[in-house]
Amino acid sequence: MKLYNTLSRKIETFQPLNPSVVTFYACGPTVYDFTHIGHMRTYTNNDILKRTLTYFGYKVKHVMNVTDVGHLSGDDDSGEDKMEKGAKKFHKTVWEVAKFYTDFFFKTTDALNIIRPDIVCKATEHIEDMLQLIDRLKQNGFVYETDQAIYFDVIKFRNYGKLSGQKLEEKIKGVRENVNIDPQKKHPADFALWFKRIGRFANHTMHWNSPWGEGFPGWHIECSAMSMKYLGETIDIHSGGIDHIPVHHENEIAQSEGATGKPFIKYWFHNNFLTVDGQKMSKSLGNFYTIEDIEKNKIDSLALRFLFLQTHYQQPMNFTWESAKAAQEGYIRLKSIALNLKNSSNTILERSRQDSKEFYRDKFKKAISNNLQTPQAVAVMWGMLKSDISDHDKYELLVDFDKVFGLKLDKTSEHIIPAEIMNLANQRLILREQKNFAKADIIRKDIERKGYEVKDTIINGVSYFSIKKI
After folding, report:
1. What HEC string does 415-449 produce?
2. Does residue 102 lie in a domain region?
3. CA nearest neighbour of 392 among 322, 330, 345, 328
4. pLDDT of residue 107
5. Region 368-384: what's the mean pLDDT?
């Protein structure tokens, strides 16, 4: 299996530290607002990675944090705590906000059939672990104190910037001087490990005792403390969005390696952005969508997952309602095929030549093992379904591929399109791909005479069809 590593900037052969257990830490949600479809794409791709590892025989220990304190708006420690901001916005306590949006996050991931992590760790339940890590950093000479906070001194960490490739001098020049609120802060790139409950945070609702008085942790220290507590000081895989690379993940590396003297992460796995109608998602633009918006538009949540599969995780993806509806039609077709194959009389009696069956399995494995090429894997699936191998083997392969896709193709049980109609529709699609539109149209009319309507769609250059009873 090969995987792109942000740290080395190349695709590498995946070799875990311990072949029997892959350690996997995922940056989880900050639970101050609704989980949106951009988050959904990231966690779906994390799930695809986890399922692929499992498919190839690895046991995966998966840990994800929930940030319920300490995440400030902005990257320079100058903003407001997002949890406090959410509490003011929704007129609730920070604890109520955290519970409500944590529940909403898991409602969303469950709808997308995302396997829950083995361990979900909340920042507010690991304060002592963070304080112990800060103490280790202090003993190693990476920490200094101001009247307002405890900071990590990035100048003292020799390799700061190795993940993003950005030099410290460039990073410091890029920070606006007027946002450096703490006048005692040595460098703009220094980041807070602990905020004191004074000044702008004098009335901060969430606070704990520390050697420096009452206060609360910075966002970055949370992930390092919790990931190392459950997975060890060096971890196989750490995932997150590409927006985390230049600051959050860079800071995680600095404080983790500054404390232990060991490499922190072997493989960094980053997902690219999702835009909506070519624009950044924003409530002010009216294009901020959640799982509830998807369902209100009569799109199956697993159809959205199917849509995500058709863009590689490293590529930016643009969401439109047209593409979502096309994915819905493609997913309905796929479920119908799966059900017809499952119920086919040929599934028991007929088998293909073993080499024909394994040809498609090998192509699928080659696609997903090559840095999770899910668009290629989806194309292999459609090619297999159009092939002349037996219904028995088509269904067996489809269920096997779905161990990675996660589309629940073996569990659906709603009304299905008759096998006769599905076979005609498949013949018609093949004829259209061969540009034999005259014969394809004859089959379409035959389908309509039998009481069904077929509709064509294209997603990412691949042809699909949906069928409904007239």
Report:
1. CCCCHHHHHHHHHHHHHHHCCCHHHHHHHHHHHHH
2. yes
3. 345
4. 97
5. 97
